[in-house]
Amino acid sequence: MRTSLTVLTPRRPLSSLPFGWYVVAASEALRAGSLLRVRLAGHELVAWRSESGVASVSDGYCPHLGASFASGGCVRGEHLWCPFHGFEFDATGACVKTGYGTKPPPAARLPTLPVVERHGVVHAWFHPEGEAPSFELPTLDEAGWTPVRLAGFDLESHPQETSENSVDIGHLAVTHGYENVELLGTRHEGPYLNTRFRFVRRDGIFGRLSRPITSTANVHVHGLGVSIVEVEVESLGIQTRQFVYSTPTDPGRVKLRIGMSMKIERPSTIHPAFALAPTPLVRRFASAAAFREFVADVRQDFKIWNHKVYIPRPALADGDGPVGIYRRWARQFTQSVESSDAAAE
After folding, report:
1. Distance between CA 120 and CA 102 in Å, rounded?
2. What is the mean pLDDT of the chain?
3. Is the separation of the CB atoms in 153 and 303 below 8 Å?
4. End-to-end CA distance of the chain
5. Rounded to whole angstroms, what are the CA distances from 119 to 218, 241, 308?
6. Residues 6+ apart with CB under 8 A from 184
7. Are 238 and 209 in contact, with CB atoms under 8 Å apart?
8. CB neighbour list of residue 143: distance below 8 Å, 6 or more residues apart
């Protein structure tokens, strides 16, 4: 009996390093006068903060003779100090002092990355060819919002895979148990992509609720490393901002940081007892409970991200959401695009 053999297509991971803004540290972890060892796109870097409070991100090795700043180096005033020969560098990467009191050699220049600090995290700009930032990150009005809570996780994935969740409407029901998921619209312009959808959850922010809760999500994606999800739960009188930061650390690995801030319009709509409690106490309790629920939600994706493969030509179906649109949009951030990645064209 003749059988038909199927030729298996070799799987290959996403290997291109997308340019963009990536979180390298939480602001509170980078105290004045301190430094941290960080990984970004296969490079060892140091994030450091001067005594005056300026955050910088530099190459992790001294350009003089290659010593690691993270192994014995420190911040002295406004400079990064090398533990090998005492060379000092300013935030621009210029060598301003040697350990001998001699003139700094012009070639001793420390590579640095552009940095912006927003909403409790330090972002560094990465481009494989060293090009300058081509887009900016938004600054949100924080009046009336609780402080951002943060958590971090190491995963086997790629920023394009994790950010794709913002448009993967189909997985919201299967993986997260959402009901009545409705896509409201998708648009993109340059490095910015926006998706809006509505959904119903029965597991609410403060534990299991007896009634379904309808929420509306407005997702703002800035490159492949920064996503801000605005969620409004009108019936409870609350709004949340969910920050999703995916940073490529090494090939096939990311540091996923997630954060949340909350705005409560009417505490009594969450629970009648909250009307009697001090507003600051309600905000702390509510934001902590919401963040726990958010972390539990994101954790449901880990088993997928850690074990999935990248399909360049996905067999998309009605109900998936605008995955094809996202794939085409995402190509702009890679230097070398896989020629076979022609999703949904």
Report:
1. 40
2. 90
3. no
4. 39
5. 18, 11, 31
6. 196, 197, 198, 216
7. no
8. none
Instruction: Tell me which residue has tokens 């920064």.
Output: 226
Quick: pLDDT tens for 163-215.
999 999 999 999 999 999 999 999 999 999 999 999 998 755 554 455 688 99
Q: What pTM was estimated for this model as a whole?
A: 0.91
DSSP 68: B
pLDDT of residue 29: 97
List the 121-126 sheet strands across, edge first.
20-26, 121-126, 115-118
Report CA dihedral (243, 136, 127, 295) to the nearest 10 degrees. 0
Q: What are 63-97's pLDDT values in tens digits?
A: 999 999 999 999 999 999 999 999 999 999 999 99
C-alpha to C-alpha distance for 22 and 226, rounded to whole angstroms:
7
Residue 90: the pLDDT is: 98
Helix (H) or strand (E) run with residue 122 in it: strand 121-126
Q: Which residue(s) pair with 95 in the sheet?
A: 89
The answer to whether the beta carbons of residues 136 and 240 sit under 8 Å apart is no
Tell me 52's DSSP state.
T
CB atoms within 10 A of CB 92: 11
pLDDT at 284: 85
Instruction: List C-alpha distances in Å: 101 to 85, 98, 238.
Output: 11, 6, 59
Taking the alpha carbons of 322, 325, 327, 329 in that order, is the dihedral positive or negative? negative
Rounded distance between C-alpha atoms, residue 188 and residue 40, angstroms: 26
- Collapsing DSSP states into helix, strand and coil, what is residue 257? strand
212-237 tens-digit pLDDT: 889 999 999 999 999 999 999 988 88
In the block, which residue shows the tokens 């309600």? 282
CA-CA-CA-CA torsion sign (321, 162, 159, 239): positive
Nearest 5°: phi and psi at 159?
-55, -30
DSSP state of 61: B
